[in-house]
Amino acid sequence: MTIQEFIQKMPKAELHLHIEGSFEPELMFKIAQRNGITLPYKDISALKQAYNFNNLQEFLDIYYAGAGVLITEQDFYDLTWAYLKKIHQQNVIHTEIFFDPQTHTDRGIDFDTVINGIYKALVDAQEKLGISSVLIMSFLRHLDQASAFKTLQSGLRHKDKIKAVGLDSSEVGNPPSKFQEVFDVARQEGFLTVAHAGEEGPATYVYEALDLLKVSRIDHGNRSLEDNKLVDRLVALQIPLTVCPLSNLKLKVVKDMKWHPLKKMLQLGLKATVNSDDPAYFGGYMNENFISVAEALDLSKDDLIQLSKNAFEACFLDEDTKQKLMQQLDVFQQQSDL
Questions:
Q1: What are the residue numbers of the active site?
Q2: Which of 36, 56, 92, 288 can pair with 87 through a Cys bridge, CB separation 3.0 to 4.6 Å?
Q3: Residue 106: what are its φ and ψ, rounded to 5°?
Q4: For strand 217-220 and strand 192-197, is the pairing parallel, antiparallel, or unpaired?
Q5: Percentage of the chain lying above the pLDDT 70 cut
């Protein structure tokens, strides 16, 4: 079995996926047309050409423009369902999806419209595709904490659908400490917490996410490696890192995949996982991310199994459900060793 075949067949869990970032150009044009919206691109190829960014901010600019065509509950359902069908083909059996309510409520779209469309697709994926899922509500860190509190209040009506809150968008200049109070309240309300930290921002942001936001996972976390004490702490506590290789390459966090820190993370004992982040924009879903690092870093099949195992262990499912998913990985490993 080739590495590519091994990755295709290996059961996987994705823990870092922005649903708005799975918006493929073809679907974006289709929904824009349905809603009578004219995109600032003459055709699909022109839009794809615009997907060449130099940094996180340039990416976010086009990301928010694309999200602007999402208006109805059906739009959010279609966006989510397209992603779920894609990962089903790649043998992803569990996914934990970020959604950014403020991206939509700030342009007049009702919170309920957003979450109900997404959630209905997740329910259908469980029933029709056998994919389990968790929904994570993210606060946009370039906005103020008052806006995050308003979003949290809306989210409280949907505690049956939302498992955790997160923190994303422009990292530099927007430290986790800016949102300490809203995360305190979110935890009091029973939500788990995660945060993007140490992607473009410094290792100090990772400390803040741990100490002030009390996160269960660090999203990205690449720059944690710049601080040996922080690495020791992450290893000791087995805090998962939801690493996104193709995203790191596309956003110039690493200049070449051969320099990606993922293998070093494993060697250090960090609980690293592989994820796609914003796959429509960054050139690949789960399998493409796995294949990219496997080839560039010469990862073994044992490394790949470890990365997948880390993700199942780090997911936000109850222990019984988690064990059932892990058993699928165990069976795959046993069969692949024959």
A1: 199
A2: 92
A3: -70, -15
A4: parallel
A5: 100
Assess contact for 279 and 242: CB atoms under 8 A: no
Nearest-10 Cα torsion for 47, 48, 53, 56: 80
AA identity, residue 287: N
Residue 330 has pLDDT above 80, yes or no: yes
Residue 239's contacts (CB-CB under 8 Å, 6 or more residues apart) are 210, 215, 216, 217, 218, 233, 271
- Give percent of the chain above pLDDT 90: 91
| 277: DSSP letter | B
Strand order across the beta sheet in which 92-99 lies: 12-18, 92-99, 132-140, 162-168, 192-197, 217-220, 240-243, 271-274
Q: Where are the strands (E) in the chain, listed by range?
A: 12-18, 92-99, 132-140, 162-168, 192-197, 217-220, 240-243, 271-274
What does the pLDDT read at residue 117? 98
Angle, in degrees to the nearest 10, between helices 228-237 and 203-211? 40
Q: What is the DSSP string of 41-64?
A: SSSHHHHHHTT--SSHHHHHHHHH
Cα 260 from Cα 139, distance rounded (Å): 28
Please state the three-class secondary structure of 307-332 as a single string.
Answer: HHHHHHHHCCCCHHHHHHHHHHHHHH
When pLDDT is cut at 50, 70 and 90, the band that residue 338 belongs to is low
Averaged pLDDT, 154-176: 97
For residue 241, how far is the Cα from the chain centroid?
11
Which residues lie across from 277 on neighbouring strands? 17
Query: If you search the block for the tokens 């606060």, which residue do you land on?
Result: 139
The radius of gyration of the chain's CA atoms, rounded to the nearest angstrom, is: 19
Instruction: Write out the two tokens for 110.
Output: 């009702």
Q: Is 52 exposed, middle or buried (0-12, 13-18, 19+ CB in 10 A)?
A: exposed
Between CA 153 and CA 114 the distance in angstroms is: 15
| Cα gap 114→104, rounded to integer Å | 8
Does the global pTM surpass 0.85? yes
